[in-house]
Amino acid sequence: MAAPAVEGLAVTALRSVLIRVRNAAERSGRDPNLIRVVAVSKTKPVSLIRQVYVAGHRFFGENYVQEIVEKAPQLPEDIDWHFIGHLQSNKVKTLLSSVPNLAMVQGVDNEKLANTLDRAVSNMGRRKPLKVLVQVNTSGETSKSGVDPSDCVALATHVKSSCPNLEFCGLMTIGMPDYTSTPENFKTLLNCRTAVCKALRIPEEQCELSMGMSGDFELAIEMGSTIVRIGSTIFGPREYPNKQANA
Fold it and tell me: Could you give the CA distance from residue 193 to residue 46 in angstroms, rounded to a whole number?
């Protein structure tokens, strides 16, 4: 019986996040309209996502293939779904076939995955290339997916030059083990963007930076993030039935 109250809180929380995003952008002299908030609904029910959708939000993300393929078909087709984090190559076909409105994969962390995505998009006859971000491991933690910063140019170049069914859109990072980031993590990604844009001969403004989550998105925006991924601040703590919750 408590669900409606929780759902109301999620909408209120979203509005608060959007205000904080705008304020952070204005503090750093940036246009707030150029920053997207992806609401990450990991472990949350479709009913809660729908409430946030009805409030006007259209960007949602999931971290697990099983969750996104279950939820997306139950929700409106004009949602822009983002798959966030490490994607196994053997789950690519399931993801793409089950979520035709998949807008972006955040992120591609090796050439094998890029090639698999490229072939799958081609075989499915999508009308336009699938947008992807290259995932960079900025914290150096072995538990985190992502390419080493020294390899980001090579992977971005591969996507750009050898994967015609993918659209290279920029870079993303997850950060530290507790999912927070430090200014050094963000600076590393900024440096990667400079190197990638120089190698690909594209303006830095055309290269997205997905960095910043519930605990650090304002700092990320002040340092140049164009996509922030907000989960628990909007939807409340994660709900893991069989294991201890993570933030």
Answer: 35
